[in-house]
């Protein structure tokens, strides 16, 4: 805050009027500067963003505009806005407290995807059981399909957790019985099972893209981000990996080459898809 003497000095400098700012001149001109300062403030009261600055230095809201609130920035009145029906906390015991902007269509689509993941897990587990038999004994393929089964189950549980987080209700559907035999007269068991796995991964990717489309249609960016961040990239990587395995198995045929492929897969660790 400028003093009356310094305000007079600054005004003199702006008007290109030389002032002798020594202690003697300040003392002799203090009364005139004080009067001039008061007159200037009174004559030129300034308004900034709806606030009136008075001569005493205090600020008050300008009421001339018909608005009792400051004009600068967004006015947030939480205690008024939460009275909106959309923010009322439900009291019914079976109603979700967390649910917000979560459409029934999204909830239903997530339950369908959970069913897809569990079906895949069940089928991969059947493949594990087949290749782990004593009369098949392809331990690399057995481990690969067991890890794949666990991965699909993990995906189903992730979707179940997300459903609960958004206030939806998990509804598990029926799962069909998978086949127990995977031998094929022309392709053999290893190639036939791996081609089936590739088809399953492509089908799963298609279902995930459909779920993402539902999220977009329902204007649910959070669900879309969840699918993108946790599933889509991993899914296309799995499709590429299994495509490589199918190509390799087509080269080696049904004979001794399958055993070598199985040993390589076992050493690789049977990475889950």
UniProtKB/TrEMBL annotation:
GO terms for molecular function: ferric iron binding; ferrous iron binding; ferroxidase activity. Its EC number is 1.16.3.1. GO terms for cellular component: chloroplast. Keywords: Chloroplast, Iron, Iron storage, Metal-binding, Oxidoreductase, Plastid, Transit peptide. Residues 100-253 form the Ferritin-like diiron domain. It catalyses: 4 Fe(2+) + O2 + 4 H(+) = 4 Fe(3+) + 2 H2O. It is an enzyme of class 1 (oxidoreductase). It holds the Pfam family Ferritin. It comes from the Eukaryota. Belongs to the ferritin family. This is Ferritin. It comes from Daucus carota subsp. sativus.
């Amino acid at each position: 805050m400028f003093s009356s003497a310094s305000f007079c000095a600054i005004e003199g400098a702006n008007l290109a009027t030389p002032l002798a700012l020594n202690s003697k001149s300040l003392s002799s001109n203090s009364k005139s500067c004080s009067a001039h300062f008061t007159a200037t403030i009174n004559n030129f009261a300034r308004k900034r963003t709806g606030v009136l600055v008075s001569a005493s230095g205090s600020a008050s809201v300008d009421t001339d505009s018909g608005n009792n609130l400051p004009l600068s920035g967004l006015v947030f009145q939480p205690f008024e806005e939460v009275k909106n029906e959309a923010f009322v906390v439900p009291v019914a015991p079976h109603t979700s407290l967390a649910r917000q902007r979560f459409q029934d269509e999204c909830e239903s689509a997530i339950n369908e995807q959970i069913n897809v993941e569990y079906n895949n897990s069940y089928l991969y587990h059947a493949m594990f059981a087949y290749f782990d038999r004593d009369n098949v004994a392809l331990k690399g393929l057995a481990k690969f399909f067991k890890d794949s089964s666990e991965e699909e189950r993990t995906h189903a549980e992730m979707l179940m957790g997300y459903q609960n987080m958004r206030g939806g209700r998990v509804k598990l559907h029926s799962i069909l019985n998978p086949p127990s035999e995977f031998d094929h007269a022309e392709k053999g068991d290893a190639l036939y099972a791996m081609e089936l796995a590739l088809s399953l991964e492509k089908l799963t990717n298609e279902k995930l893209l459909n779920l993402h489309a539902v999220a977009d249609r329902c204007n649910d960016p959070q669900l879309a981000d969840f699918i993108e961040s946790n599933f889509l990239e991993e899914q296309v990587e799995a499709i590429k990996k299994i495509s490589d395995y199918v190509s390799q198995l087509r080269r080696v045929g049904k004979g001794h080459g399958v055993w070598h492929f199985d040993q390589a897969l076992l050493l690789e660790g049977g990475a889950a898809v």
